[in-house]
Structure formats: C-alpha cells, structure tokens
Specification:
Largest sheet: 5 strands, mixed
Number of strands: 7
Helix content: 10-25%
Radius of gyration: 17 Å
Distance between the termini: 27 Å
Structural class: alpha/beta
Low-confidence stretches: 1-32
Strand content: 15-25%
C-alpha cells in the first residue's frame, strides 16, 4: 500500500510544524505534515460527517456500489474509527453523540450533514464562510470546545495500476476566529476502497508505536 499527500496550511502555535522532512523523491510541495495530537488533547472536537463524496462506479469494490446514504455512513465509520484509534487523547464528537449536541441547540442548528461544510474543500478559502461559520461557533459553544474537524471531500477513482485511489481533503477550523487553521490533502492507494481510505488517514494521522 502506498500513499502521497499534500498538506497546505498549518495554524501557527496551535497545530504545530511539519512532522517529517522532505525526501529526494518528493517535490518541495509534497512534504509530509501530520495533525499534531498534543495541540488538541483533552479537548472536545466535533467531527463533521462526510457529505461530498464522488466515486468511479466502474470500480468492482462492493462498498463503492452501495446506495449513497449507506456509502456515506460506511466512509464516516471508517474515518471516525481511525481517529478514535489513532488519537484517543482527543475527545472526538461524532455520529449519534454529535447529533445529541446539535439537538441541544433547540432548532438553532440544522442536522450535522446540512451545515454546508463541504464548501471547505476549496483550497482558496482561508476562513469559514457564513452561515457555516456561525453554525460551527454555536456547535462548539454547546460542546464546550473550540475546534472542528471537517473531512470536506472524499473521492474514489482508479489509479494507473488498477487499484483504488482515494483523495481526501480535511481541515481543522478555529471557531473563535473562523480561520481554517490546518488543511490536509492526501491520496491513498490500495487494493480496496477501505484500504485506500485508511492510507489517506495514515498520511496525516499515522499509527504510533510505543518503543519499550
């Protein structure tokens, strides 16, 4: 399994510097930079559901042939499972728990899938536009947090070798300022859609091992 990715922006003092060094095989813009877990440790961080997903329907992978609602639910489950496994020190809010927080808004917030957050896939954006920005601010106030993790876009295609190619765009937003503090673009390739998606997550949130 192999993957490549491009990290575009880091929030100074919050999400930290690059976690790796440039290699001779990678161009300058393809430096490996990961999400710094320590900067979010102990904080409640809502994880928005994936709403922008495109797929090559000619791929044989059974998951990519699911009806769209089931495909989105499958992708969300893989993504949030990886976040919890890789960074349990962060209090991720997702799924039913996220929906419970939204219900506490008593009608001031739409369902999580209707926040309009897929607009953040646009690399030109430096701040979150309204009304998504105000919705994020209300959400984190109810959750007693500050940051929101947004998987803004996911696409599955076929790579040149016939394997599945996943392209993921993810951002972290600071709801106090509206800034998009961290943006990651990752490409993962694997024999299945699940393997390809997990490869993109490996890019910015690699599994850590403990050395005795």
């Amino acid at each position: 399994m192999r993957f490549i990715g491009v990290v575009l922006v880091l929030l100074a003092g919050v999400l930290g510097p690059a976690a790796g060094q440039q290699t001779d095989q990678k161009p300058k813009e393809q430096r490996r930079t990961g999400l710094v877990r320590e900067s979010l440790a102990g904080q409640p961080v809502p994880v928005m559901p994936i709403t922008h997903l495109v797929r090559d329907t000619t791929l044989a992978d059974s998951n990519l042939r699911l009806p769209r609602p089931k495909l989105l639910a499958w992708a969300d489950s893989i993504f949030t499972e990886a976040l919890v496994e890789r960074a349990p020190e962060i209090s991720w809010l997702y799924g039913a728990e996220l929906e419970r927080v939204v219900r506490r808004a008593a009608g001031r917030l739409p369902a999580p899938a209707r926040f309009g957050h897929s607009v953040l896939r646009a690399s030109r954006l430096k701040t979150v536009p309204d009304p998504t920005r105000s919705r994020f601010r209300t959400l984190t106030a109810l959750a007693d947090g500050r940051f929101v993790f947004v998987p803004a876009s996911l696409a599955f295609t076929r790579d040149s070798t016939g394997q599945v190619r996943a392209v993921l765009t993810a951002v972290v937003t600071d709801t106090r300022t509206g800034a998009i503090g961290w943006r990651a673009g990752a490409i993962g390739i694997g024999p299945t859609a699940e393997a390809a998606l997990r490869a993109t997550i490996d890019y910015f949130l690699p599994e850590e091992t403990v050395t005795p």
